[in-house]
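TL;DR need structure tokens for one chain.
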Amino acid sequence: MAKRPHSRSSTKKAPAGNPDVRLVRFPGLPEIHGGDDLSEQITNAARKARLHLGNGDVVVVAQKIVSKAEGAVVHLKSIVPSPQAQAIAERQKRDPRLVEVILNESKRLVRTDPVLIAETRHGYVCANAGVDHSNVPGDDIVTLLPRDPDQSARSLAAALRKRTGKRVAVIISDTFGRPWRLGLTNVAIGASGVPVLHDLRGTRDRDGKPLAATVLAVADELAAAAGLLMGKSEGFPVILIRGYRYKSSVEPASRIIRPASEDLFR
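>> reply
TL;DR here they are.
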């Protein structure tokens, strides 16, 4: 098991409050296609909406448009399902070509009945290995997760800084289910510039009691907040978060993944 990267954000001092955090939609983004420059599309949309990116802003971008821009798209007509995919598809009454894509994106299958839960090559344990056909034109086209979401976030943050001259953090978000709880929520699968975890172990609460296990999933909380404005059909895949106070960090979102050696439920 690889060691976790050192985080500049693992300070023992609690962050200052954020009483004036604002979330703003980026309206007017067009349908994204392979090869599109997301930094250009985002800055164009911001200009049309008279939004000006500033130092410290956090831009949360839906995974779907990152995948589209990077060409992480599969046409099912090009897929030949394996016997394993056909067997699973028959039990679940699904398209065996779709199941084959899910298998190709999986490092291991956690369960195959009644739904497909898989561990992706990134280390995420999620439904269908992140393969999705929602918000994609056509019935036989699906998107995959970005190959390296943290690198995607770093590249987009650098491109936005080049275009605007501002230090902007980027979070790439996706909707995940959660064990023991109903419903989906947005989480961070890629990050650049913003802390993903805030370690409060060793500090004290307001009553002076020591905190022994509190590590806040900051990037997930920001992604979830942005998800309230994104919706699933409204067409707002980019959200600006302004006023959140943080120390710039090189911590990747992959650090949020709990190592297998620390997982009590495997």
